[in-house]
Amino acid sequence: PPVKGDKFLDFLVDELRPTLAERYRMSGDHALMGHSSGGYFTGYALFARPGEFSRFLIGSGTHPETLKLEAQFAESHDDLRARVFIGAGGDEVNNFSMSASRIVSRTVFLAENLRMRKYPSLALKCQLYTDRDHFTVIPSMFADGLQYLYADEAQKLSQLPM
User: Fold this and answer.
1) What is the reported pLDDT for 3?
2) Count of CB atoms within 10 A of residue 95's CB?
3) What totals of helices (H) and strands (E) does the chain contain, helices first?
């Protein structure tokens, strides 16, 4: 059965992106970032439509379906061209509903699986924020994630003459 995110992912890639490209100059280097349920979706998009985005920030959320998709992807692919930052708040395990959702363990499990695949084109960083919970982790995680995801672009900018 189709996953609920399919329609939204199709909308982003097949409808919204072309519409924006008609009005605005776009590089073709697309990023997707999300936290909690948005993190579920971001991880899902990484494997549901590989190559449609090149940079991913997956925050405090890895859905069981994402882990299945990752395993299926690994069966038929020997590379994953993406730059991925995965983060979570360590204090999320101290909240019953977050623990019941396996927020931290699934997030780490996804990062570990990706690391073990040794995809040559994958740039991956996983960061756990031991002093943050599901909500207080957002600012630090997004700041660190953006720095990681765009480190290559920042390097290019630093080499431009002033």
Assistant:
1) 64
2) 15
3) 8, 4
Six token digits for residue 48: 């549901």
Q: How open is the CA angle 100-129-51, to the nearest 5 degrees?
A: 80
- At residue 1, the pLDDT reads 44
CB atoms within 10 A of CB 51: 10
Q: What pLDDT score was predicted for residue 125?
A: 98
Cα(150)–Cα(119) distance, integer angstroms: 20
The pTM is what?
A: 0.92
Select from 42, 44, 48, 37 the least CA-distant residue to 66. 44
Question: Contact, 57 vs 146, CB < 8 A?
Answer: yes
Beta strands in the chain (DSSP E): 31-35, 55-59, 82-89, 122-129
pLDDT (tens digit per residue) in 10-27: 999 999 999 999 999 998
Which regions of 25-142 does DSSP assign to beta strands (E)?
Answer: 31-35, 55-59, 82-89, 122-129
CB of 148 closer than 8 Å to CB of 55: no
Residues 39 and 35: their CA atoms lie apart, in Å, by 4
The predicted structure's pLDDT at residue 76: 96
Bridge partners for 123 per DSSP: 83
**What are the residue ranges in the chain where pLDDT is below 50?**
1
